[in-house]
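Why does residue order matter? Because the sequence determines the fold. Keep that principle in mind as you read this record.
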Amino acid sequence: MKRTLLGFFVLFSSCLLAQDSQTAIFMDLAAQHTRLHVSSRPSTGYLGMPLLGNTRIEMGNSLVHPVQWLSQAPDASEATLNLDAVRQSFSDRNDLSMDLQWDWLNAGGFSANRRSFWSVAVSEHIQSCVELPEDLMRLPFTGNAGASLMGTSLDFSALSLQFSHRREFSGTWQYEWNEKISSGLRLAYLQGLS
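Structure:
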């Protein structure tokens, strides 16, 4: 079991070295550089390995940080959970989101005269977001008794799920006219659902 776990961590250790995608604009050797700035190109050709070349995972949370729910007296050794702060934090928008992107194929290379650069990519993009209404977030703490005492009903109308998945097949051509002027063209075919 230890070897399996170690193998899993070694296999996905490239995720620990990930950069924010916007910083790739300034990184000449990164394959993502050509996707964000189509008229630029890397210094060398490349061949990305499936699932190890370019993988990106982003998770979002609009809920407050749990540290805001804790309070500690100056002479106490442990913090306590402030339920009023928890309930108050649920009155704002509550979103949980996850974006996942990876490349099945990512390759690029120069033409014979080194003025043109060609690249192809096949990638998957999955985006999901769940919006949780205030009454649903408070339900574990108050049950339905809170709404019954106030003479109202629980309102779950803001509950929503957004999901999209697309596969992108793209090809890029970049041409360097001189040291100051270059141009690029990208064609992409998208298929998926939302």
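The CA atoms of residues 132 and 159 lie 5 Å apart.
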